[in-house]
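Assess this one:
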Amino acid sequence: MTTETNISPLVSLEYIPYIDEDGQLPEQLQGKIGVYAIFDQKQVLQYVGYSRDVYLSLKQHLIRQPQQCYWVKVKTIERPSRTILEKIEKAWIAENGSLPVGNGDNKEKWTQPIDAKVAMTPEEQANYENPAHDEIAKIKIIKNVARRVEAEILKVLDLRGLQTQIRFNPKLKEQGLLDLK
């Protein structure tokens, strides 16, 4: 167990494949409290975060940033302590020598639901802004955009060989947002 004086350096931890040879996420992390570092295909640090369920957080990051999630390093702790988790997170970022892209200006892309509305085509945008459409018609347009973006994400994950089931929250699609259920 990690204590305040015993912070494992990031460099000392093993790389774990984000998606294993069976197409699964690291299931041994389900329900585990800890700090995790996400790396791209070239093992360049992209994001450092902490969670009360590392597995669920990794799953969320994968749908939000599928091209950046290839490797992960994790340090779990037995009991939740935000103080310890934040100290490890800060130590790993300092050890990296620079702020990972996912912890800087792009943090919302890693931590917030996907806004499908920004992926609207010009035709969808014009259709959405059509004054003849009522609120129900606009919701339908937004849901269709969200479904299209969802299909694009699932296609990328399928190409990566992911076998873990991904279910998006259907209620958020009405707002043009994608997040896991």
